[in-house]
Amino acid sequence: MTGRGRKRSRSIKAFRRTLRWLVALVVIAGAGLFLYSFARDHPEDLPWTQLDLAQPVGMFTRGKLNGLSEDFAQCRGLLERAGVEYDALDPVSSGEQCGYDNAVRFAEGGARNIGFSPAGVGVSCPVAASLAMWEWNVVQPAAQAHFGSPVARIEHFGSYSCRRMYGRDEGAWSEHASANAFDVAGFVLENGERITLVRDWGDAEKGAFLRDVRDGACDLFTTVLSPDYNAAHADHFHFDHARRGMGGACR
């Protein structure tokens, strides 16, 4: 190869290296722009963003809600910023395993508060925050889609109960023992129609609604148990915020 040929070959190689670098920079810049846009438009899907109850449910929402058990003040602040009206409950202590110090009671008639039957239920603050997001993002859209009417009240079997799991005399303590669980029995629509798990789980339309709201709850609570789990849950959903690391139970 002549000197001119070698020079031309080196120039081509240098051009190709430069081109590869330019392509890599364009790809990196494009990826950076995409990530910036995604982070701006979908903060709920990022693990490091602060939880906002008014945002849609994201990939890390459940973990952030579960983490609220460590900071009662933060949890109450999130409820207030989202427009949820509540009363903070005095701490309760009953034996070594029972009691709570982070419970709230939804205020009846609040602008962003759904009704509960019986009224006046108290739950841990993380459960309250999850119930609010569940109603806004899951229950009401599902009710409109299936029945064309919003839900006016949620019927329930309560939250706090100083007992072990399944009411046994021995074994692990229930999340109900710390008001960190809530049992949903049914729904009353604004048009007066009533849907209950014990009666309607096997119904085509009402059962489809109940499964939709069950599935949506799995993105918010670390434990969701339904009639599909066992006979003990044939008449209610059990929701709780048990500490399960990165995982959850949805049955």
Structural summary, described in words:
By secondary structure, the protein is of the alpha+beta class. The protein folds into 2 domains: 1-41; 50-250, no CATH class. Helix content is 39%, strand content 19%. It is built from 6 helices and 12 strands. The strands form 3 sheets. Strands 5, 7, 8, 9, 10, 11 and 12 form a 7-stranded mixed β-sheet that branches. It has a 3-stranded antiparallel β-sheet with strand order 1-4-6. A hairpin with a 4-residue loop joins strand 8 and strand 9. Helix 2 runs antiparallel to helix 4 (125-147), helix 3 packs parallel to helix 4 and helix 4 (125-147) packs antiparallel against helix 6. The chain is elongated and about 95 Å long. The N and C termini lie far apart (74 Å). The model is unreliable at 29-38 (pLDDT under 50).
Which parts are unreliable, with pLDDT below 50 for 5 consecutive residues or more?
A: 29-38
Task: Count structural domains.
Answer: 2
* Major sheet summary line: 7 strands, mixed
Assembly state (oligomeric)? single chain
Element-by-element helix/strand order:
HHHEEEEEEHEEEHHEEE
Structural class: alpha+beta
Give the averaged pLDDT, no decimals. Answer: 89
Strand percentage lies at: 15-25%
* Rg (CA only): 25 Å
H/I helix tally: 6
Alpha-carbon distance between the two ends: 74 Å
Estimate percent helicity: 25-40%
How many extended strands? 12
Which geometry do the CA atoms define?
Answer: elongated
